[in-house]
Amino acid sequence: MTAAILTAEWFHLGLDAYYRKFDVYSMAWQQEVNLDNYVASSASYGGPIAIRRDDQKFLKVQGSGQPIISIFSGSGKQIASFKWTRRPIVHMGWTNEEELICIQEDGMVVKHNMFGKYLHTFNISQKVQDSKVIDAKIFTSPQNFTGVAVMTSNFKIFIVNNIEEPKTRQLSELPRSGVQPTSWTVVSEDTTEILVAREYELYRLKQDEHHTSAILEPDITNKYTSIIKMSVSLNARHLALFTDSGYLWLGSTDLRTKYCEVDCDNVHRPKQLLWCGNEAVVLYWEKDTFLAGGEKENIFLVVGKHGEKVNFFYDSSIFLVPEIDGIRIVSNTQHELLQKVPESVQKIYRINSTEPGSFLLEASKQFQRGSHKANEYICLVKNDLEIAVNQCIEAVGYEFDTEIQQMLIRAAQFGKCFIPDARSDIYVNMCRLLRVLNAVRDPKVGIPITITQLNYMKRRKQGILKRLITRNYYYLALQIAKYLKLPEKEGTSYILVHWAKYKVSQSHLEEETVAREIADKLGYSSGISYSEIASTASEYGRKKLAIKLLDYESKASDQVKLLLELGENTPALVKAIESGDTDLVYMVILKLREKMPLGDFKMTIRNFPVAQSLYIKYCKEHNTQALNEIYIQEDDFSAQAETFILESLDNKKNHMKDALLTSAQEAYKKGRKDLYVAMCDESVKLIRFQREVEDKIPGTKTKFIGKSVHDTCKLLLDMKETKLVEKFKNDFKIPEKRYWWVKIDSLAKQKNWTEWKSFLKLRSLQLVTPRLSMCVYSTITGQKLSNI
Q1: Which of 91, 212, 352, 466 could lock 136 by a disulfide, CB 3.0 to 4.6 Å apart?
Q2: What's this protein's family per the entry (predicted)?
Q3: Alpha-carbon span 195 to 334, nearest angstrom
């Protein structure tokens, strides 16, 4: 191919600015679709195209007359179609995830996937619903979320910055006037703002706390009465204004810089006004003036930042799709791409170019012909061969034509042969990218993506694999992931999980077959979550399939959690016990305790000794009542009694001690534990005596309860309650010697030495020798024996 042929589609637009418009596809729909009668919208990055009948035109309709939305690939291959049975649509567009959103006149936003399946609906605001939406815009927020802005019949503007988590904000209102807005657009850079034109006035509406609105004064030289169309570049830094005098004003979004002002030779409102990258603007008029032959004339005007312009004409209607590096032009027959010629491509193909890459390409051509001139061209660039090779490798990425790709790749490969120790990684990576790009650009797939868009999607974590998965091209996605040697988690495993989710959504397939097929395909690879697939199956109402898939899940926690959600309580408990994770078993037990009737719960865990043991341990620490209920169920009387006794030892339950010990006594009676029955009886008797003493003697509240027999007797002696002491001694059969020791101790502490000595003398024969009495006295008083 000669340079003249390669540059035939180029046109000059400014100093060194070249643009090109070339065919990408011949549309498969050309026998079925006439864009004159439809409203169309396409997703960015070579996304699908949605069309619906234009309500503003009178057309002959067959059937029920209900609107039909049809979705096509970039090559015109039909993907899906569905009837629209809701309220009239004001605006139709796509999200960043290639989901179709339709904004109704009542403020409802309806979302479908590209196969026409309904996904979600939300209402922008009650205020919007009460009025009526007359226009709407879909934009990308600074955080890369899809947002929606609507204008109501009373000219108020509401925005939602993220339709996944809709939070509606009303922007500041325009100053009161009887004049209607003539155009408006969204500016989404650091924050989201709205530019609104009301005839010659231009306002900036913000979403701050003060709801401020500022009037702007663009530097438009030529007279005008109204701004009738405006557009902001995708990077939100450049603004285009079209006036009713037919002039186009280009400048910065903040209006501080003016680029140019151009007469477009047309005073009608353009149907579309879009930025082509950041250095040119495209205007499209769909005229109603019929030419001879009955065809409609459609004008396509390209205007550069410095005022240069180029006209194109189309026989039929077209619609334009803005991209980050150009504009896609879709007509009845063709799908074209308009873009600025990349610098590396200009250097190689430009006529009379002296760039190293241009000479290397010519050398490669001559070498293919077997001409000696190849050596002459190589000699011209022998000092810049590495630059020449890199120019050819960079340029090939921007080409759609496979013949041109092969020509440039051969040139790069030819140049590498003359570079010692040449690096091959850049060359190899580009070859891989080209194969991927050509695979997804194939008309059967229909994604006309450029290498610039592909690299941008990588930075925004919206890889090409996700686009293929959305279209159900799983095999192609797998081949690309393997070819690019992506990590298994980001490549093969990620794709297979989505394939499995798609598989479980097919209700006509048998569950056993689907489960086996998924298990055979996925195996136990890392990064595979069967619980995630099972959860999807559950959402589609395929419970049995979900349970079968969970048998392959390696993580017990995920397995158990979903089994509980599915109501499979016993299998969940079995899996938790088999895992050996006590925390997981506790979680299942407590969930079952909340969900199941008490009787069913007790019978369920009774069949699993491990679960019952853990539940008993839990109840001992947190719920003694439930613990006692378990012992009653099992007729374990000793354990019941122990529970009551342990509970009685709690100082906070002193007022219940006798009742608790009585319950323990009854439990021991049922278990025929006579010794323990007697012990409980003595304890109850002691507590009741202590309570009586507390009631009789003022100021002794809470002093006696909980004391032992020894301590109670000593406390009574300290309080000099002689009668009560005697009664207590007889009732509880305290041995004489123990009683004497307690009394001696009490008298010593009271320093009642007279009575202490007399008591010793009275009891000396039975108790102690005088020498031992003196030792006791010395110990209690702290005095030396020599001083006594």
Answers
A1: 91
A2: Belongs to the VPS16 family.
A3: 34
- Report CA 464 to chain centroid distance, whole Å: 19
**741, 755 Cβ separation under 8 angstroms:** no
What is the C-alpha separation between 200 and 222, in angstroms, rounded? Answer: 12
**Residues 73, 445: contact at Cβ < 8 Å?**
yes
CA atoms within 13 A on the CB side of 707: 20
Quick one: 217 exposed, middle or buried, by C-beta within 10 A (0-12, 13-18, 19+)? exposed
Q: Nearest-CA neighbor of 624 among 638, 644, 605? A: 644
Q: Residue 660: which residues within 8 A CB-CB, separation 6 or more?
A: 644, 645, 647, 648, 653
Question: 320 pairs with which residues across the strands?
Answer: 329
User: Pick from 1, 2, 20, 24: which is nearest to 10 by CA?
Assistant: 20
Residue from 757, 755, 751 nearest 774 by CA: 757
The mean pLDDT of the chain is: 83
Give per-residue pLDDT as tens, 31-79.
889 998 899 999 999 999 999 998 877 666 666 678 899 999 999 999 9
| Nearest-angstrom CA–CA distance, 757 and 750 | 13
Cα–Cα distance, 709 to 728 (Å, whole number):
9
- Cβ contact 342:279 at 8 Å: no
Please tell me the distance from the alpha carbon of residue 186 to that of residue 439, in angstroms, as a whole number: 35
Phi, psi for 40 (deg, rounded to 5): -120, 155
Using CA atoms, how far apart are residues 386 and 415, in angstroms rounded to an integer? 8
Please choose, from the candidates 641, 685, 682, 646, the residue with its C-alpha nearest in 3D space to the C-alpha of residue 665. 641
- C-alpha torsion sign, points 502, 505, 506, 509: positive
Q: Which of 309, 318, 321 is nearest to 275 (CA)?
A: 321
Q: Is 168 left (phi over 0), alpha (psi -120 to 50) or beta?
A: beta
Residue 220 in this model has a pLDDT that exceeds 80:
yes
